[in-house]
């Protein structure tokens, strides 16, 4: 059976942009409904009082991961045509650490800052302004960073081929990891409210 | 004025978000993103101000060439992030949560909060440039695709955040 999805090539540029807008609206609605437009709620994750960030993120990862796994297995989606971000180990670890520092100061991440700003929060608008200025400035001063940013390039590298276990087994491990994290989060939340 | 409705259950909202991400994979063959929209917008501005220098800049060139040579303003992620703002505003409006405010810790003046928000945004930008993505494009999207680099980013981001959090308690408590 020939996998009919993804549709990106069939849609063309105009269709893709309509899909982008629709997917973006749905993304914004779910973030807002979860309360992730609120910096105070996000900050709770780092003071162990509110684990909404972890719960939403891991439920979303597990849902999309299992959905894509089964749609691939059933021959509905051609997984070789789904873009997987390339791995650059050291810059991604370092970038993650720097990003985490900014995340605590801002109380919002780039996506949620857009929701915060759009729902009337001045702090959200300032995070958006900071992100934009930061990207522009980093871009202008990028030359000395380029070597580091392109270092330890491994191409498309996934956990299954790192661990030498099957795609399905890795997915199962992630589900177990998520369920364990949810259990710990529930316990810590209960002790924080006592 | 109506009183705001409570937020959705985080697990239900998470599954819904996962289905949105899955829809992006199935329809477009790619996941969600946020910092990429900032990168394209910054590239657009840079090439308006100084087109030749932007084309020679190794970072901006990535976004000028990307998308098949299309304008950075018509980038998929720029349109997607406009959708995010529209969806967020509509959702808050229907739930009675649309309100002008500055969210901050109880002991932090509003002006300091805005300064930290800007500094935090700029710091995240540097991190996202180095990591080639943020919590949307790396943690969420690459996480669901089991990308090694995305999981590395996620571990780094949480480690960085938990390491700094105790020193800036005044921001939130």
General shape of chain A: globular
What Rg of chain A, in angstroms, do the CA atoms define?
19 Å
Rg of chain B (CA only): 18 Å
Which shape of chain B, going by the Cα principal axes?
Answer: globular
Give helix and strand order of chain A, one letter per element, not per position.
Answer: HHHEHHHHEHH
Q: Count of DSSP E strands of chain A?
A: 2
Biggest beta sheet summary of chain B: none
Derived from helix and strand composition plus strand pairing, the structural class of chain A reads mainly alpha
Structure description:
The complex is a heterodimer of chains A (194) and B (173). Chain A is mainly α and 194 residues long. Helices cover 71% and strands 3% of the residues of chain A. Chain A has helices spanning 8-34, 39-44, 52-73, 89-106, 110-118, 122-140, 146-149, 159-163, 167-193; strands spanning 87-88, 153-155. Chain A has a two-stranded antiparallel sheet. In chain A, helix 3 (52-73) packs antiparallel against helix 9 (167-193) and helix 5 (110-118) packs across helix 6 (122-140). The mean pLDDT of chain A is 96. By secondary structure, chain B is an all-alpha fold. In chain B, 67% of the residues lie in helices and 0% in strands. Chain B is built from 8 helices and no strands. Chain B has helices spanning 10-28, 35-49, 51-56, 58-65, 76-94, 110-131, 135-144, 148-164. The longest helix of chain B is centred in the C-terminal third of the chain and has 22 residues, at 110-131. Chains A and B meet through helix 1, helix 2, helix 3, strand 1 and helix 4 of A and helix 1, helix 2, helix 4, helix 5 and helix 6 of B.
Short structural description:
The complex is a heterodimer of chains A (194) and B (173). Chain A has 194 residues and is mostly helical.
